[in-house]
Design a protein that fits this description.
21 helices; oxidoreductase; N-(1-d-carboxylethyl)-l-norvaline Dehydrogenase, domain 2; single chain; 12 strands; three-stranded mixed β-sheet; Mannitol_DH/Oxidoreductase; 2 domains; alpha/beta; globular; Rossmann fold; EC 1.1.1.57
Amino acid sequence: MSRLNSALAQSVTTVQTPQYNRQKTKAGIIHLGIGAFHRAHQAWYTHHVMNQNGGDWGIIACSLRSATVYQQMAEQDCLYTLLERGNTDKTELIGSVQQVLVGPENPQAIVDAIAGESIKVISLTVTEKGYCHHPATGQLNTEHPDIIHDINHLGSPKSAIGYIVAGLKARQEKNLSGITVMSCDNLPSNGLVTQRCVLQLAESISPALARWIKQNVTFPSTVIDRIVPATVANDIALFEDKLGYRDEAMVVAEPFSQWIIEDNFANTRPAWEQVGAQFVTQAEIYELIKLRLLNGTHSLLAYAGYLAGKETIADVMQDHVLKKLCTAFMQSAASTITAPEGFDIKAYQEQLHERFENPGLKHRTWQIAMDGSQKIPQRWLSTLSDIIETNGDIRFFAFALAAWMKYISGTDDQRRAIQVSDPLADDFAAIAKQCAHTPTEYVARIFALESIFPQTLLNINNLELFTCEYLREINLNGTLATARKLLR
């Protein structure tokens, strides 16, 4: 079967194809972190802007870790197919990505690309851990190995923050116009977090560079939402049989998509609002709603579901106990939110249930469970802090923390080993081994990790006690039985 490429795309009649001339379109965006989510979200929006209006908004995409995506896309002229799975399937060829660069192979190429005269926007989807910051405080982690490297060797950066600072330094030296740095990751006030980390690293390099960044670079916050499970070999094979060409870079997504952007750009930008994005003065409340209701519930379902032997979120939602737990947890989180005028928070929760239940999406619980140490501070702990402040019911969050602690200990309810993917996985494993027969000490040691838990949150309203009790119950009777007891 033929591999997708530009020549083949001209003959495809079963898929929507780009309506702009890719060869004559200049790059206007550098994107750090060319994973499936970017291809299904920001690149998809940008593709539709160029379909509608044209414009020089091609994307130079950068992989900061491996050459995998480059290998998938380079042979396809950076074309790829987006498959929307819902009640009916929809496919289209996306052409907004022009080039893929691989940081470890040629870091200077990325720095030079950021300093290109046509570039107006630097965007990021590098996941929470990619910011090399302390999730509990939002400050740059100056002891992170990549940050230490970048401070001493900025000419060949390793971290996303290092690439941005190196590229901005090159722009300063070339006396180029202002530029926008736009985070599209699930972080509270992601623009402010990015700005803080960039300025802290820049200050350690050159105070003059930090001053230039303050004067010439903006950092709008964004809210991004689309469920994009990892593409698996079976997806590629089924797609090949159906449409008649092989696409190693295809992505699968749900039909729903949301992008809320603070209108704070240093230069021109694509007219994303014409293709469904929403521009606002402040994104914080929308970000809070999504983090607490969608992302927070997603994490709960991932940990509880995986422990109970559920492979996907749709599988989790087929279990009446876990579905009821989903509703109760979401309602608890919603009690901490004052929605903006005109926003129906109850309808939003109902919509989330429908999205979680989508059988076409094989969104693996293991995938969502990755990097919990970087996620739960913003997905759970800020909500929990608000619940504690109002003397609310903390039980659902204590259960969630217990499920997470069981997960990171390395075995599920059937005592099968879990491959824990987390920056602190080795620390978790060591604590679990040392406290194998003393759950109370294990919980206390995990709560003592200040990079995750603000210590002001602990020992209030018996949080540690409740968490320990739920963990003991999970160890003895399993996750489903513990959740059933909680829901009585």
